[in-house]
């Protein structure tokens, strides 16, 4: 059934319920994707500067072929033996520190983070979790409690187990060596211990993407990791957005930040859109979890998902996409610097590899966020065929996080168009 855009919006509410979010004032009806491009129902072409789910490109031929080949052969769960899951976990953990040698495969990053928190409880015997106050880690009943910026209005009353630290902000509250952030974590650890709940884990994205990916130097998380380990807790790194070479300097963002997590969680780009997530950890932590929890996931680690995920790793390696991300990211930084010199509304620029952006402000001295202006810029870019979004505490930072094949030429089209939009968009509506 082919619907008009208006009918699609009506039927979404009818069949999916109210408040199902869409991007842009004028939502895009996408029907096809290839590489870094999307096409809508009218045949219009869009440059995708947002989606990290098709990590190695929309409809990547290697991934598509792997899915089709495996789906035509076998797909079942892990209570039968199959090589695919073992081959994949072996290759995946081979990209990490030797201590991260075992894994559980899931269907989503939310499930992965849920398991990670249970691992922390099982390992430490405590339940106190710390996260930043401007993040998102998933939508299970447990993990959704960590989204302080958008908490559930009803739930199971788990809030007593969660404490928050102020998200790092290199623009408004510089912390060049990470000492202030580490001290904030130490204070919340002490509060957990005094409450009787005890401290189990710190859960963070090591590149703080939802928080606006502040500019922090390599090794910035070392003081925080030391605080966590000294207190007997686990460091959980959520690499759902920041992993698989996104930063351009390392395969995993925790490497860039100078730490090795006790537990790492994965999702979104892992299977290039095929639903797969994962938890990677040390063998002894996984053994404790397996002893204390009866966990089974019917679809987690199925042969087709593992084939898709293996193809993603092979594509990253064969196409040298991490090095490519670094090259394009350096070019993007130069283009952003030129725009910042031209437009006062750009208060700060930041990013590494294929995650970069600019923070919009009403005034550079006061640094007052230009949140409404940012929204208008994003919608104007959409009308010109460029898709990206916003994030950060004030929703005033452009979120540019394209598929990994995104090129220097693609970046030039993005920034040439952004230049035009900034020239035409007034600060006041």
List the defining traits of the structure above:
single chain, 429 residues, alpha/beta, seven-stranded mixed beta sheet, four-stranded mixed beta sheet, 16 strands, 37% helix, globular
Verbal overview:
This protein has 429 residues and is α/β, with parallel strands linked by helices. It is built from twelve helices and 16 strands. It has helices at residues 5-16, 61-71, 83-93, 109-124, 179-195, 222-230, 253-256, 283-292, 303-318, 321-342, 371-383, 408-424; strands at residues 30-34, 37-40, 45-48, 102-106, 128-132, 162-165, 199-204, 234-238, 263-266, 277-281, 346-352, 355-363, 368-369, 386-387, 389-391, 397-399. The strands form four sheets. The chain has a seven-stranded mixed sheet, sandwiched between helices. Strands 1-2-3-14 form a four-stranded mixed sheet. Strand 12 and strand 13 (368-369) form a beta hairpin. The longest helix is centred in the C-terminal third of the chain and has 22 residues, at 321-342. The protein is globular and about 60 Å long. The relative contact order is 0.16. The model has no long low-confidence stretch (mean pLDDT 95).
């Amino acid at each position: 059934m082919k619907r008009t855009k208006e009918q699609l919006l009506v039927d979404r509410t009818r069949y999916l319920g109210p408040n199902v979010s869409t991007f842009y004032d004028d939502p895009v009806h996408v029907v096809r994707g290839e590489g870094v491009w999307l096409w809508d129902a009218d045949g219009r072409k869009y440059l995708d500067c947002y989606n990290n789910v098709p990590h190695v490109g929309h409809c990547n031929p290697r991934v598509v072929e792997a899915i089709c080949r495996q789906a035509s052969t076998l797909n079942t769960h892990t209570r039968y033996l199959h090589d695919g899951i073992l081959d994949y976990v072996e290759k995946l953990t081979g990209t990490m520190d030797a201590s991260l040698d075992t894994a559980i495969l899931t269907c989503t990053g939310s499930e992965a983070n849920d398991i990670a928190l249970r691992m922390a409880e099982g390992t430490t015997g405590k339940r106190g979790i710390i996260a930043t106050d401007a993040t998102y880690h998933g939508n299970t009943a447990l993990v959704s409690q960590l989204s302080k910026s958008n908490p559930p209005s009803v739930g199971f009353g788990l809030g007593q187990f969660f404490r928050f630290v102020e998200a790092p902000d290199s623009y408004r509250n510089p912390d060049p060596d990470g000492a202030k952030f580490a001290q904030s974590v130490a204070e919340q650890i002490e509060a957990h211990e005094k409450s009787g709940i005890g401290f189990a884990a710190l859960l963070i994205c090591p590149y703080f993407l939802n928080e606006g990916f502040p500019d922090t130097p390599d090794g910035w998380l070392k003081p925080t990791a030391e605080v966590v380990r000294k207190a007997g807790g686990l460091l959980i790194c959520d690499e759902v957005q920041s992993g698989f070479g996104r930063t351009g300097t390392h395969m995993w963002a925790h490497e860039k930040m100078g730490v090795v997590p006790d537990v790492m969680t994965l999702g979104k780009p892992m299977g290039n859109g095929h639903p797969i997530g994962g938890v990677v950890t040390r063998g002894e932590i996984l053994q404790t979890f397996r002893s204390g929890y009866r966990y089974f996931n019917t679809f987690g680690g199925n042969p087709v998902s593992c084939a898709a995920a293996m193809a993603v790793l092979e594509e990253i390696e064969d196409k040298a996409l991490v090095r490519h991300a670094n090259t394009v990211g350096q070019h993007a930084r130069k283009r952003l610097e030129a725009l910042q010199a031209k437009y006062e509304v750009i208060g700060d620029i930041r990013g590494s590899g294929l995650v970069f952006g600019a923070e919009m402000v009403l005034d550079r001295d006061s640094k007052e966020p230009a949140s409404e202006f940012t929204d208008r810029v994003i919608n104007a870019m959409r009308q010109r065929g460029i898709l990206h979004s916003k994030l950060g505490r004030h929703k005033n930072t452009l979120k540019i996080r394209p598929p990994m094949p995104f090129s220097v030429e693609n970046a030039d089209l993005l920034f040439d168009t952004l230049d035009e939009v900034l020239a035409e968009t007034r600060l006041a509506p």
